[in-house]
Amino acid sequence: MTMLDRYLYAVQNSLPKDQAAGDIVAEIGDDLQSQMEEREAALGRKLTDDEQATLIKAYGHPRVVAARYGGVQHLIGHELLPFYWSTLSFVGTVVVAIELIGGAISALVAHNGALFFGALAAAWNSLIWIFGIVTIIFALSERVPKREGRPFGSRLFSWDPRRLPAPGAWPPVPRSSSLIEFIVNFIALLVLLDAAGPHHIPLDAVVANALLHMHATLTPAWHSAYIGLVAGTSIIAISAIVVFVKPQLRTLQELARAISSAVVIIGIAFTLQAGPTVQPAGGPLNTAALYTLVGALVVLALQLSISIRALLRKPVSRTASRTQGITHA
């Protein structure tokens, strides 16, 4: 994997979604390849890694180069705009993660889900403040005179082409999907643990009252399925908040889904082996519960196979294949 491959891959990941990434990357790759060949012809030898790094670095930071194709910006110029978005994303992610984790721990310890919803409200308010503060800082920085032709804060965003990630890695997980996955699964966990707040109706009481009107009761056979469901939901919630902080951990996301599915499958399997799940054993409710558990097993097995397939499948990088054609031409 050449340094040029890594650079083009970084540019491609920074391009706007509505741009023709393939054509833009091809244009940049051809330009850099020509510069390298001209330099090698002048020296009469291949360029060293340090010489390649110097040439690529002179071309510009991947985010700055990609931002040139994003249209005209007025409040924040194209040279600082990519760093503005990355700073906004980083600060917002850290603050939201800390507040949600703190709210989640408080809700579980105090057995009061209202604390988690309070953390959600606080995180939303923090995002508004972060957006305003970071925007003001970068807007003012845009208007600070440049030094030696370099934008303000260029030292803060120094980079080295030799440290760019190699093509072929998993694409990052959208933070919005990770956040939704965490919130949904943690709320489900609060319901399962009967920690919805001081003014709530426990889930087990709802189920017990419904069955009472049908002259039926649940058996202890459900204990294994309940433990498996709590464990599986916890695994998904924890992995979702970790992937929210670091979206590149798509492998962790798929691994957590696979483990969660396996854990719940094991719990349901033990429940099915433990005997009747509803008393009276021969009633229609027991049959309905049996079919429901079997259906859940089928769905979970499908989810498990999808996660395992995703883990075994190697990501394909179009950039790598294209740049290999250039460098070996």
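The record above closes out task 2.4. Task 2.5 opens with a second protein, given below.
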Amino acid sequence: MLGTNIKRVSRQGFISFWRNGIVSFVSVFVTTVTLFIIGTVIVGNAFLTASLAELQDKVDVNVYFTIAAPEGEILDLKTRIASLPEVKSVEYTSREQALQNFTERNKGNTLVLQSLQELGSNPLGAVLNIKAKDPSQYAGIVTYLEKQNQSTLSGDAAIIDNINYSQNQLVIERLSKMIAGLEKLGAFVSLILILMAALVTFNTIRLAIYNSRQEIGVMRLVGAGNSYIRGPFIVEGLMYGGVAALLAIILLYPATLWVGQTTSSFFGGIDLTKYYIANFLQIFVLLIVSGTVLGMLSSFVAVRRYLKV
């Protein structure tokens, strides 16, 4: 008996979904847009996170030494820095290698090369390139370097000429703030669209109740139970959310395909199409659950409010 009632309620909800063609279309359309935006926010957040991680990996500290700094003292400092627990790697570039790299970068600039020849000597100092395990640890490393520079002297002069940390720190902080702002904006837009979709579904079910008022009256007269009368409207709302979720999932694939080549060549090198395919099950479940819950809750509220049985 229970199975029969469920079938009848589901069939009646399905019939009502197709009978209210225009209003059903509007409800499905708005809910589809909402779920599509939610899916876009999910995929976009993965792209932003990968971009930030890639940029963080590129951030480093370059320590430039004076021309007169003895190589032995530089290598000794390199060993001490490498032993720090927060340091990921330290790369040493000698004065000769620094000059060779500089010449290679400017091989098309005859003015710069002529200037080097006129100097008659190597004007560049050695360099240490330091990478930390976490970007937040660079401040501590720089503080350590500054203290070492004060205590490690060659004659009367410090061996470190410059540390380029402040420029990189500004870039990473600005990018982090930008990504956090975009995530908040995406969440805010999604919330607004969810409220709009819930309101449209609510009014759609309200209209369906009004259009079915004669049928509801007949069912009351013949003694139909509350769940039997309310059930088709709940099923109708569930269909709004379910169909919209399926459409949003289908539309997300060509959307990620369209921007996938562009994002793969950007900071993080993440291909959104591959990410979408790899995480399809999680995204599918999330959107289906979001859509059906949104539709059912909106329908339930509308039925409780306007269908007194």
